[in-house]
Amino acid sequence: MQLLQKTLANWRQWNTGGGVLSAQPTVLRELIGGRTNRSFLVASAEFKAVVRINAVNGASLGIDRQREGLILELLQPTGAVPKVLFQTDKVLVSVFHEGRPWSEEDSRNTEQAAALHRLLQRVQAVKVPQLQRRNYVQYCQAYIDQLGSAFAVEGLQQTILTAAAAIDLADWPGVICHHDLVPENILVTDDGLIVIDWEYAALGHPALDALRFHGTDQPSNYVHIGMDPERLTESLKPLAILLRGMDDLWSLVQTEFSEEVYEQGT
Fold first, then answer.
1. Cα 188 vs. chain centroid, distance in angstroms?
2. 197 closest CA partner among 101, 261, 77, 127
3. Most C-beta atoms within 10 A of its C-beta, which of 96, 130, 135, 160?
4. Of 26, 27, 23, whose CA–CA distance to 12 is shortest?
5. Whose CA is closest to 212, among 104, 72, 114, 118?
6. Alpha-carbon gap, residue 75 to 83, rounded angstroms
7. Would you put residue 147 in left (φ > 0), alpha (ψ -120 to 50) or beta?
């Protein structure tokens, strides 16, 4: 892959700090698991990094690489994200962290759950005055417009858009929201929790990331976000519909793109 080799050849431009990297890294293996991009583990002596080659259909999936870069830059001091070494619209290089994905056992572990809450608090405390709060109706409509007849279930469209409108009209503070905080994107390391793959991050609803783990019937688990309890409880059900709807829309758009690529290649 030319872009991967070009990125490795430009290793002197990586922000690794003096003396950490003294020779061009080589590819150890491709990292399996991501559904959007391709990622490769590279190394030079003891130094390891991840080179992510961005998907060509990122814009259709709602990805804004400049926004991701801004958010990652602001989150560097929190310890919640890998150190970014190099970034363009086509590639991201970050420090590799040894660890394992978050598990169901972690969700049941009181200490681990508390650590995740503290991480979300640190992330949400970072201000991003350059960005506006996400408009979820527009975000979902952008997916729907791409699908056409592939998403002809009008009732489902309306269900998603109604939930999105309810969230957009509600009173909540826009905070940095990962928007794809699935277990695979949370690494449990010896140094604590690290969250990866921030390409869908934006100023979003403060309860959305935690919703994947707690569901709508445990409002007490959202006390850390600082919203009025009654207002929060009212938001959880439409927020759950919105979260599921965004996941479904993403999958449909990605499937349609994959089918188009297959047809062009046959």
1. 16
2. 101
3. 160
4. 23
5. 104
6. 9
7. alpha
Cβ-count burial of 33 within 10 angstroms (0-12 exposed, 13-18 middle, 19+ buried)?
Answer: exposed
Question: Are 179 and 245 spatial neighbours (Cβ–Cβ below 8 Å)?
Answer: no
Cβ-proximal residues to 197 (8 Å cutoff; 6+ apart), any chain: 34, 36, 180, 185
Q: pLDDT tens per residue, the chain (266 residues)?
A: 799 999 999 999 999 987 778 899 999 999 987 778 999 999 999 999 999 999 999 999 999 999 999 999 999 999 999 999 999 999 999 999 999 999 999 988 989 988 998 999 999 999 999 999 999 999 999 999 988 765 666 668 889 999 999 999 998 999 999 999 999 999 999 999 999 999 999 999 999 998 888 776 666 666 666 666 677 778 889 999 999 999 999 998 988 776 665 445 54
Q: End-to-end CA distance of the chain: give it in Å, rounded.
A: 21
Asked if 201 and 68 touch (Cβ cutoff 8 Å), the reply is yes
Q: How far apart are CA 1 and CA 33, in angstroms?
A: 19
CA-CA-CA-CA torsion sign (177, 217, 164, 253): positive
Domains in the chain (CATH in brackets) are: 2-95 (3.30.200.20), 100-265 (3.90.1200.10)
What is the Cα 70 distance to its own chain's centre? 14
